[in-house]
Amino acid sequence: MGMRVHRRWASTLATAATTTLAASTLASCSPPQRELIGIRPTADSGAIASLRPCGKDRVASVDVLGSVIRDNPDDPVEDLTSWQVRSPQSVQGPEEIQLFHTPDGWTGDPAPLGDQRLKATHRYSVIFIVASGGGGVSYRGVVHFTAADLARLEPGQVWAGGRAMTVEEFQKHTDQKCDNGWF
Questions:
Q1: H or E segment to which residue 39 belongs
Q2: Residues with Cβ within 8 Å of residue 69, at least 6 apart in sequence
């Protein structure tokens, strides 16, 4: 009985988290999202996120959300993974962090959800938040990927904007996203 309740709670939480994320993304007052994160694999089957906020903007937090890849978006969300870190005084400018490992000086999520490792069966989103002066969110950097996307990368490439690109292409890509006047 206890295990059944726990599974039901996890399923409800996963559905609520996905619904909340989708609602906040679709809301007319939500901050813009831009492809300002590149992901590359590590030798130990992990991943490094290259965060490239615009100019000297400050990253306040980084979130990783993952769930089993679904063929039908109406299917229930299963096996949710959630992890978050907050920067000490908001990190300024580009930064790299290893997913599921709290960087020195950052604050990790005291209760992460699910396996804290990449799984071949999951789709992931990494999101960083740039806070505005009034305590709100100015914009979000985002990337979506699977372990298969990372496995296809060649040395010197990152996954960003839905495709493989060189580090130089990624830097140009993020410069263009920042220079387009949306921020």
A1: strand 37-41
A2: 121, 122, 123, 146
